[in-house]
Amino acid sequence: MLSTLASYQMISSNLAKWQAMTQAEPDVTTATNYYQQNIGSVKSVDDFLNNDRLFTYAMTAFGLGDMSYAKGLIRQVLQGGVTDTSSLANTMTDTRFKAFATAFDFTGKGASVTTTAVATTDVVNKYVQQTTETDAGQQNDGVRLALYFQRMAPTITSPYQILGDKALLTVVQTALGISPMTSAQDIDLQATNISSKLNIADLQDPTKVQNFVQRFAAMYDMNNTDPTQISPALSLFSTSSGPTFSTDLLMSLQNLRLGG
Fold first, then answer.
1. CB atoms < 10 A from the CB of 17, how many?
2. Which residues contact 20 (CB under 8 A, 6 or more apart)?
3. From CA 104, how far away is CA 120, in angstroms rounded?
4. Selection from 162, 163, 166, 167 nearest residue 142 by Cα
5. H-helix or E-strand containing 17?
6. Does residue 82 contact residue 108 with C-beta atoms inside 8 Å?
7. Looking at domain 141-253, which of 3.30.10.20, 1.10.10.60, 3.30.470.30, 1.10.3700.10 is its CATH number?
8. Are 142 and 224 in contact (CB under 8 A)?
9. Contacts with 145 (C-beta within 8 Å, 6 or more apart), sequence order
């Protein structure tokens, strides 16, 4: 079985090919065709939320598929829009919600928003990209996390964004050897801890991001490999273990401002 790093590099070095393969999958083709043919008929937040197929497709595209059940929250996000700096979308730590509200800005752009390129072509591209990562994760979740981190890294401007996104936090904690138990600490203390170990500005440098992802991949394999099978190279990295990240804490982070 390929290592996390080898699998990640195999996909990331030829991402367009892998995405084309994903797009050709029957389930993806069916879901995409339905979305493309019907999204333009959605004229309001209610229309959107009442069509589960369209709504779930769009949520999945923005990496929010596991939050599709939370229609009450998403209604508030969409109705608040993105123009007002105090709107829910603008104050949530997880920037995926703002991206979603921007693409479907019924408040600011009205009923025609679902005919824009952002709500049509861009959403389809995001759906294929997200599904490619998810498919990779079925074989090795470390690969999914590595691909996701690489994609999201340039958008990260604050440690609070990392703390508000379970996948990003998992990558950072794993790569830096930060125990998941620290997730029970005060949120500002966690942010300070991350900032002391990771220069957020480095995430704007593709080379540094690649190096960080490679470190994550090595650490991920070490943490998920039989200790008797760990290679000497992997043993150079140190790590700590602990319970999984609290979903309750993740949800509580959503209302924190980026500035902390």
1. 10
2. none
3. 10
4. 167
5. helix 15-23
6. yes
7. 1.10.3700.10
8. yes
9. 137, 167, 170, 171, 216, 220
List pLDDT tens digits, range 9-26: 999 999 999 999 999 999
- Ranges of each domain in the chain: 4-123, 141-253
**CATH topology agreement for domains 4-123 and 141-253:** yes
Helix H, strand E, coil C: the string for 98-113 is HHHHHHCCHHHHHHHH
What mean pLDDT, rounded, does the chain reach? Answer: 88
Nearby residues of 260 by Cβ (< 8 Å), 6 or more positions away: 158, 160, 187, 188, 191
Check residue 224 and give its pLDDT: 85
Instruction: Kindly report the CATH number that applies to the domain delimited by 4-123.
Output: 1.10.3700.10
21-47: average pLDDT: 97
Q: What is the pLDDT of residue 226?
A: 58
Q: Are 59 and 67 in contact (CB under 8 A)?
A: yes
Q: Let me know how long the chain is.
A: 260
| Residue 235: pLDDT over 50 | no
